[in-house]
Amino acid sequence: MSTAILEKLPIKIFADGADLEGIIDLYRKPYIKGLTTNPTLMRKVGVTDYEDFAKSVLESVTDKPISFEVFSDEFPEMRRQALKIRDWQENVYVKIPITNTRAESAIDLIRDLAAEGVKLN
Hints:
Blueprint: H1 3-8, E1 13-16, H2 20-27, E2 32-36, H3 39-44, H4 50-60, E3 66-69, H5 75-86, E4 92-95, H6 107-115
Parallel strand pairs: 1-2, 2-3, 3-4
Helix pairs in contact: 2-4
C-alpha cells in the first residue's frame, strides 16, 4: 500500500514494537501517528532495563504520542509506575491493563490516574 493511501485513511496508525532501530524507522514515517510498546515485547528482544530503553526511544520520539505500559501486577505499584512513566516526557501515554493477572479490575486505578491528568490508553 502506498504512503499516500495510508496517509488518507480515516484512522490513526500506531506502530507497536520493541526494537529501537525499528521504532525510530517507523517514527519517521508520516503515516505513523504514534507508537506503543510493552514489557512483553521488550523481554522478547532482550531489553533488561525498561526505563533506560524507554529513555533511549524518547531521545528520538519527541513529537508523536508514545505509550509505555506499567509492568506490575499490584495496583499500588502500577500507580507508582504510572506516575513515574508520565513524567518521562510530554508525549508519553501510560498503558494500564484493564485487569491484573488475578482478573481484578483496574477501573478504580484508571479513574484515579485520569482524574490526576495522567494521559492513559
